[in-house]
Amino acid sequence: MYTQAMDSMPTEAKPTLRSAEELQLQQRFDARIDDGQFIEAKDWMPEHYRKTLVRQISQHAHSEIVGMLPEGNWISRAPTLKRKAILLAKVQDEAGHGLYLYSAAETLGTSRDEMFEALHSGRAKYSSIFNYPTLTWADIGTVGWLVDGAAIMNQVPICRCSYAPYARAMVRICREESFHQRQGFDALLTMMRGGTEAQKAMVQDAVNRWWWPSIMMFGPPDDQSPNSEQSMRWGIKRVSNDTLRQKFIDAAVDQAKVLGVTLPDPDLKWNEQRQSHDFGAIDWSEFFSVVGGDGPCNRERLAARVKAWEDGAWVRDAASAHAQKQAAKAVAPRQAA
Ligand SMILES: [Fe+2]
Ligand SMILES: [Fe+2]
After folding, report:
1. Distance of CA 7 to CAs 97, 246, 306, Å?
2. Strand partners, 271
3. Is 194 helix (H, G, I), strand (E, B) or coil?
4. Rounded to the nearest 10 degrees, how much is the dihedral formed by the CA atoms of 134, 140, 141, 145?
5. CA gap 199, 188 in Å, rounded
6. pLDDT tens digit string along 106-157?
7. 260: CA distance to ligand 2 center in Å?
8. Residue 12 confidence (pLDDT) above 60
């Protein structure tokens, strides 16, 4: 998911209930949530629930779109035609994910222009993982394996999110993320099994750089995640940050063995009692510095999005001029009659 940033945002003030009617609506809403029912766009919902969803879904959409940048960088340099075709398809999928998610957020009454404005002005966050650079071809495989892998772990529970349009969008997204993870793993396996020593070293170097940022993708520890409890109660979030992180680490350890790479954590070891892996301390100061705008590529990523928006202005103008013309034509015969 690319939604961890919401956990680091301040909790908003709880709205005060104004009328008996509203109280009744609130009770009905709570009962539906407790009953595990889905909430649709036209259903009544508390303002705080709506705002939380707009923030989470739009941040998720921004992350999909910004996430295209580190990978798009390698389309022209993919080592074979097959890898180029796969990477093109993957980057295109991410654009699609962004579009489904912007559409889901729009059902909550926020326009796409408002969401873009929030991204471009730096008010809205996106996943901090995309502020790291992709230095070699092995980074592309590693992003697929670890970053898309972490995304699936985060996103599968959102398929059961209480807000139905978000949950529905996530079903298709998760299927595609699974392909992304496998293609990354496959690209790395090819290099590790049949590659030169230099290629193997390149894979290890990429894993060394991406491992810690990937496990930070699950967001701050549960006891430092102020909005998690409310999101869990609303059924927006189904599984806690720490539980998902542990699940991801346990799966990645086995996959790293198959690849023949070492995960860069000397404290990573199996704990028989917990039936899980123990792992070393995460440097949260790095996470907060990247979320706060000081990662290696924050400025570059935002500048690329703003430039794309400005360069596309003529397309938006032409499309709306065309739409206006068509609408005028549709009205004109009726007026004549
Ligand atoms: Fe995606
Ligand atoms: Fe993906």
Report:
1. 21, 18, 25
2. 276
3. helix
4. 80
5. 9
6. 999 999 999 999 999 999 999 999 999 999 999 999 999 999 999 999 999 9
7. 23
8. no
Residues in the 5 Å CB sphere of ion ligand 1: 64, 94, 97
Strands 269-271 and 276-278: antiparallel
Q: Ligand 1 centre and the CA of 173: distance in Å?
A: 6
Q: Is 332 exposed, middle or buried (0-12, 13-18, 19+ CB in 10 A)?
A: exposed
Assign 3-class secondary structure to 210-232. Answer: HHHHHHHCCCCCHHHCCCHHHHH
- pLDDT tens per residue, range 28-79: 999 999 999 999 999 999 999 999 999 999 999 999 999 999 999 899 999 9
Between CA 175 and CA 172 the distance in angstroms is: 5
**Cα–Cα distance measured from residue 21 to residue 13, given in angstroms and rounded to the nearest whole number:** 21
φ, ψ for residue 278 (rounded to 5)?
A: -80, 150
* pLDDT band per the 50, 70, 90 thresholds, residue 15: low
Tokens 């793993």 label which residue? 185
In 3D space, the residue among 76, 75, 77 whose CA is nearest the CA of residue 95 turns out to be: 75
pLDDT greater than 50 at residue 257:
yes
How many C-beta neighbours within 10 Å does residue 182 have? 14
Q: Decide if pLDDT at 6 tops 60.
A: no
How many whole angstroms separate alpha carbon 156 and alpha carbon 144? 16
Q: What is the per-residue pLDDT for 8?
A: 41
The mean per-residue pLDDT over the stretch 234-244 comes to 92
Residue in 70, 50, 47 with CA at minimum distance from that of residue 58: 50
CA 90–ligand 2 middle distance (angstroms): 7
Q: Tell me the H-state helices in the chain.
A: 20-34, 47-66, 68-72, 81-106, 112-120, 137-142, 149-155, 164-194, 197-216, 228-233, 241-259, 284-289, 298-311, 313-336
- Taking a 5 Å cut-off on Cβ, the residues next to ion ligand 2 are 148, 177, 180
Span 314-330, pLDDT tens digits: 999 999 999 999 999 98
Q: At 269, which amino acid appears?
A: K
Nearest ligand by distance to the CA of 62: 1
332 has a pLDDT exceeding 90: no
